Structures are given as C-alpha cells and as structure tokens.
Amino acid sequence: MADRSLRGMRLGSQSLQSEEGVTFSPRITSTYQAADGSTFDVTFSADAEVPQVWESAKTGAEGILVDAEGVPVIIDKPESKIPRSHWDMLLERRTRVELEELLIERLDVFRARRGELKVDA
C-alpha cells in the first residue's frame, strides 16, 4: 500500500498552479550603460520610478540610464529640504535676546525652588 500512495506525483518538482487567466502588470524595459560601454536591460513595472543608476547583475558594474539612442537620461530630482534642528526652529520664533531673558527667568524659578535665589541689593 505504501508503494501506491504517491503514485504519479513528484513531490516538490512541479507546481499545480498554472498561469491561465492571470494578467501580468504592464512592464517597461530600461537600458543602462556601464563605464566600459557595455549595456544591459532591466525590466521594471510601468508605474515604478526608474532609477538613474543600476548595478549589472552579471558584471556588478554600475550603469547609467540611457535612452534608445544611447544618450544618458538625466532625471530631475526635486530639491530636498535641509533638515532643521530644534535650535533653528526656536530662532525662527524668538530672538537670541528674548531667549537669554527666558533662560534667566527659568533659572531664577529653579533656584527659588531649591532655596538658592540670590537677591540683588
């Protein structure tokens, strides 16, 4: 009985799924040119953002995106905002003189809590 239990089926070698009725997403092929002049194609989804530089799967060399005539394509990247620190944002709201006055006031409050307030005569 053990001889017949899996007859006609090879485990792990074939999938029972088929590609019938499956519609694939639209794709585009982009061409990249390496520094040595060799070109290679990479397939992307049609709605994906195509990168300016891609590494070749065969040679490992970086390639630059080229158009059909072999001219490098320049992708305009929007300028990113320079990150601002907390100090920069604070200086947008107050002047340095105001900040020094607030610091002195707050230090006085903390010293008064600890009983270290200096009274000016």
Plain-language structure description:
This protein is of the alpha+beta class and 121 residues long. Among the domains are: 27-66, RNA polymerase-binding protein A (Rubrerythrin, domain 2, Single Sheet), CATH 2.20.28.270; 83-121. The protein has two helices and four strands; from the N terminus they run E-E-E-E-H-H. A four-stranded antiparallel β-sheet has the order 2-1-4-3, with no helix packed on it. The chain is elongated and about 85 Å long. It starts with 26 loop residues before the first strand and ends in a 7-residue tail after the last helix. The relative contact order is 0.09.
CATH class of the domain at 27-66: Mainly Beta
Radius of gyration: 33 Å
Distance between the termini: 108 Å
Largest sheet descriptor:
4 strands, antiparallel
Percentage of residues in DSSP E strands = 15-25%
Q: Element order, helices and strands? A: EEEEHH
Mean pLDDT, nearest integer?
84
Task: Please give the CATH architecture of the domain at 27-66.
Answer: Single Sheet
Structural class: alpha+beta
Q: What's the tally of helices?
A: 2
Query: Might you state the CATH topology name of the domain at 27-66?
Result: Rubrerythrin, domain 2
Unreliable stretches covering 5 or more consecutive residues: none
Helical fraction: 10-25%
Task: Tell me the overall shape.
Answer: elongated
Numbering strands along the chain, what is their spatial order in the largest sheet? 2-1-4-3
The number of E-state strands comes to: 4
Task: Give me the CATH superfamily of the domain at 27-66.
Answer: RNA polymerase-binding protein A
